[in-house]
Fold this sequence. Notes:
With about 220 residues, the protein is of the alpha/beta class. About 35% of the residues lie in helices and about 20% in strands.
Amino acid sequence: MAGLDGPRFGPLAGGAPRQLVVVLHGLGADGADLIGLAPNWAAAVPHAAFVAPDAPAPCDMAPYGRQWFSLQDRSTARIEAEVRAVAPVLDAFLDAELARLGLPDSAMALAGFSQGCMMTLFTGLRRRVAPAALLGYSGALLGGERLAEEITVRPPVLLVHGEADDIVPVTAGRMAEQALRAAGVPVEALYRPGLAHGIDEVGLAAGAAALARGFGVTAG
């Protein structure tokens, strides 16, 4: 499986980055789809560099975009097997980006939407050193049954989910919140009335605040 790469943004303040935010897209999209979140968050963390890697495989459900794992077979066992296969590729990318920027593991945050949220939670909770924060939008917790034995770190997690989501039902977000709390992970959960499978301004603002808290950035 080839290495990852994707579009980058920042730091907004210029100069060498002090933090790294990695943003993971959903099924059928690519890094260009989510790097657009970076300007919204950069005001809160102006010394952070952002990168949105393209997922390693072409989407097999559409003639465009990429995927972290296939949904042709939606059995839990098959999906989890694919996630476990791709997680080391994402891990290697995170390590390489931190090394390239000369940053410690603790100076990184992960954010993801839909499939990207699932990869964020799976990978971020199994890192050697806790990320500064994990932000998960409209996703689910995969591998939850084995989380208690596999979790290595407990970074603060923000979960945001639309209550009208018809792609990944909000029940998946609520189950993720419950499982993470049971595993001792600090969670902030935000459920948005009327929001479908997407990210709204309230969710964006919550993400900016979570990144600032995680990195210890104060206003002004």
